[in-house]
Amino acid sequence: MRVCVIGTGYVGLVTGACLAHVGHQVICVDNNEAKVKLMQSGQSPIFEPGLSEIMQGSIQSQRLTFTTDLAAGVEHGQVLFIAVGTPALPTGESDTRYVEAVARGIGSHLNGGYKVIVNKSTVPIGSGDWVRMLVLDGVAERKGLMAQPVLAGMGIQDAVIPATVSEDYDFDVVSNPEFLREGSAVHDTFNPDRIVLGGNSSRAAALMQELYTPIIERQFAEDKTQPPVPMVVTDLSSAEMIKYAANAFLATKISFINEVANICDRVGADVTQVAKGIGLDSRIGSKFLQAGLGWGGSCFPKDVSALIHTADDYGFETQLLKAAVSVNQRQKLIVVEKLQQVLKILKGKTIGLLGLTFKPDTDDLRDAPSLSLIENLTRLGAKVKAYDPIISQTGMRHGLSDVIVETDAERLADSCDALVLVTEWQQFQTLDYIKMAQLMHSPIMIDGRNFLNQAVIEEAGFRYVGIGR
């Protein structure tokens, strides 16, 4: 099938490359010329395991191309994915101006033939009808008609769709939320738990089922013997809500175990054993029960805030979600409290951070707990150093003006008064902690993810402090 993906961030680029890999003809569109040139050369602008190899293979097989020409992409695609960013505004609501621009742009370039326009971006509930309105506005503007709100199907009786607009262009809008985890997005694309599709058109649903058939049938899955991937077909609003509800639940689960960890610290229990014990309950499960510094990144903070804001718009207070956010904000500073307990005064001390990104196997610093740590340690007069396997190599320094980024772990440890494990990079399990301890003023390790082997760290000469242990 012919596919156009508009926007080449984490979601758009992974979606486009993976759909090309399974056999579709894909054009990815982005308005950043430098980024497009980089991708045309086969290089990924983001760090995501396995993505570069898939891109290069699909480019060589001529199934994947990149362009800044939206018109060419719209003309090419039977299925048009909108995959641009929807960052959070200071109010907590989603910034949808990029979605709006793309929807109008699609309308201004629509040609003959049936198309399915897919909301892949995480958009506010109710955006499916809004996108349809914007596409038709784009068509109307191109035809020289006065743009007007086209609210057909939304219960407004006096809404009018100009005949020259509504009859000449055959398309449906569907919601197809993504559930990709940064650091394992390629794996998640080929091994999904489910595919969610929202809309009211059986024709669109059939086309999307055809698009996803290689994935549904697990032709590229890690375990090809598993049953077909469930496809959940529902209305637009429910599909949009599924995305928000899933991320809000996972964020709340993390905040819950962090709250339990803080109680464990006070009563002498070990949260890692508690999490193991409750995680074996099939009603609870073991995933997202790792206590630590809290959640960050591009999805959880934005999606939880957006859901809270949506509820506020309808006069409902989400007390549980607001509490989850509050717990998470406090949790980001738990390491500062532990450093104060062992070092007393932080002014004049040197603290080293092992890891900067919000999770391993990504270069994403958005809302990373490390940024809050750096800000608060600096405010308290500490000198902050950091080493991250990706950030240290790439030279990225955005938002890192108050930290010295070292090129290896031993340079980080040199002259430090304490180290903090911030990101659970796998290679941090095998560092030379004996040598690192010898290089430090006082070998103290605050394990902010309960990731390291306590016995190994203590045998290397460190005083080990975990979270909830």
Name the descriptors.
469 residues, alpha/beta, Rossmann fold, N-(1-d-carboxylethyl)-l-norvaline Dehydrogenase, domain 2, six-stranded parallel sheet
Walkthrough of the structure:
There is one protein chain. The chain has a six-stranded parallel β-sheet with strand order 3-2-1-4-5-6, with helices on both faces. With 469 residues, the chain is an alpha/beta fold. 43% of the residues lie in helices and 13% in strands. It is globular, with a radius of gyration of 24 Å. Helix 5 (97-109) crosses helix 6 (127-142) and helix 10 packs across helix 12.
Write a brief caption for the model.
With 469 residues, this protein is α/β, with parallel strands linked by helices. The protein contains 19 helices and 14 strands. Strand 4, helix 5 (97-109) and strand 5 form a beta-alpha-beta unit.
What is the mean pLDDT? Answer: 92
Q: Kindly provide the name of the CATH class of the largest domain.
A: Alpha Beta
* Domain module count: 3
Largest sheet: 6 strands, parallel
C-alpha termini separation: 53 Å
Secondary structure category: alpha/beta
CATH homolog superfamily of the largest domain: NAD(P)-binding Rossmann-like Domain
> What spatial form do the alpha-carbon principal axes imply?
globular
How much of the sequence lies in strands comes to 5-15%
